[in-house]
């Protein structure tokens, strides 16, 4: 009887162990992050010369903290968009400039965080730089925040032009005094970009690409970026001088949520 009971206990223990492993495996699969389709690439593998300053991986953005889903400071795009950027880069390099991207593919979870932030009217730590003239209660109505973003489809990027040789941009220090994004370039947060009239992610009508108040060298810089990209199939968002989408988009109606990381690309096979 003792030997039989011991055998029964052994069988029960094995069954419990198997159930535990199965449950853990099921939970792991349920919690696994989605991965990118095969035609998404890291921009650096297509053109390593394009500068990358991935703002949402840092606290220097309108929210004031790293954004959900940005696990590495890398630019991910659909291959057609990345290859078109490579062509634009070759054009600009011949003129003594380089492209610099601020944001590329953006997971839906990041957009969801933007929405939650916009709904919290008491959170305004970065207002002094990014939206000094906009009441936060109007961010949805004025079109600065939306529940969906073209970035999540993989062919949209935020970018600028930097004159060569590029000087490094110092990191933002959380809590440092903020200066309006439309202030003169000598006063606003330093950026090695050519002067576009406002900083990146400036929630202000001065950021509209063809705003008539932007003249002289600032307008010439915006025009150089716009002409270079539009000649290769990119379309500008009129309200943001930095925002371009490559057309035709491989995924015009799909909003992805895989994290921004090399693992999202390496784990898809």
Report on the structure:
By secondary structure, this protein is an alpha+beta fold. The protein has helices at residues 2-31, 43-46, 79-93, 108-119, 127-130, 216-230, 262-266, and strands at 40-42, 51-52, 76-78, 97-103, 156-163, 234-236, 243-246. The protein has a five-stranded mixed β-sheet with strand order 2-4-5-7-6, covered by helices on one side. Strands 1-3 form a two-stranded antiparallel sheet. Strand 6 and strand 7 (243-246) form a beta hairpin. It starts with a helix and ends with a helix.
Task: Provide a concise account of the structure shown.
The protein is α+β, with helices and mostly antiparallel strands and 269 residues long.
Give the SSE layout:
Layout (H helix, E strand, L loop, with lengths): L1 H30 L8 E3 H4 L4 E2 L23 E3 H15 L3 E7 L4 H12 L7 H4 L25 E8 L52 H15 L3 E3 L6 E4 L15 H5 L3
Parallel strand pairs: 2-4
Antiparallel strand pairs: 1-3, 4-5, 5-7, 6-7
Which of globular, elongated, flat, extended, rod-shaped describes the shape?
globular
How confident overall, as mean pLDDT? 91
Q: Can you tell me the residue ranges where pLDDT is under 50 for at least 5 consecutive residues?
A: 11-30
Strand-pairing-aware structural class: alpha+beta
Helical proportion?
Answer: 25-40%
Outline the biggest β-sheet: 5 strands, mixed
Question: Going across the major beta sheet, what is the strand order?
Answer: 2-4-5-7-6
**Share in β-strands:** 5-15%
How far apart the termini lie comes to 53 Å
Element order: H for helix, E for strand? HEHEEHEHHEHEEH
Q: What is the CA-based Rg, rounded?
A: 23 Å
Q: Supply the number of helical segments.
A: 7
- Overall strand count: 7
């Amino acid at each position: 009887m003792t030997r039989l009971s011991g055998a029964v206990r052994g069988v029960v223990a094995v069954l419990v162990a198997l159930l535990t492993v199965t449950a853990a495996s099921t939970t792991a699969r349920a919690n696994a992050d989605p991965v990118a389709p095969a035609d998404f690439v890291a921009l650096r593998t297509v053109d390593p010369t394009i500068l990358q300053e991935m703002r949402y991986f840092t606290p220097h953005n309108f929210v004031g903290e790293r954004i959900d889903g940005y696990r590495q400071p890398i630019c991910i795009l659909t291959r057609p968009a990345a290859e078109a950027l490579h062509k634009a880069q070759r054009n600009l390099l011949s003129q003594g400039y380089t492209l610099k991207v601020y944001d590329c593919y953006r997971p839906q979870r990041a957009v969801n965080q933007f929405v939650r932030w916009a709904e919290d009217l008491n959170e305004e730590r970065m207002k002094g730089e990014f939206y000094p003239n906009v009441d936060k209660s109007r961010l949805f109505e004025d079109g600065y925040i939306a529940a969906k973003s073209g970035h999540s489809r993989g062919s949209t990027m935020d970018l600028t032009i930097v004159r060569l040789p590029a000087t490094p941009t110092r990191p933002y220090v959380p809590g440092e005094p903020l200066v309006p994004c439309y202030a003169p370039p000598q006063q606003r947060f330093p950026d090695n970009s050519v002067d576009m009239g406002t900083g990146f992610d400036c929630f202000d009508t001065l950021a509209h690409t063809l705003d008539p108040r932007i003249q002289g060298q600032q307008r010439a810089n915006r025009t150089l970026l716009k002409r270079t990209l539009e000649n290769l199939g990119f379309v500008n968002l009129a309200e943001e001088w930095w925002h371009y989408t490559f057309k035709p988009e491989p995924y015009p109606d799909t909003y992805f949520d895989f994290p921004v990381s090399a693992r999202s690309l390496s784990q898809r096979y």
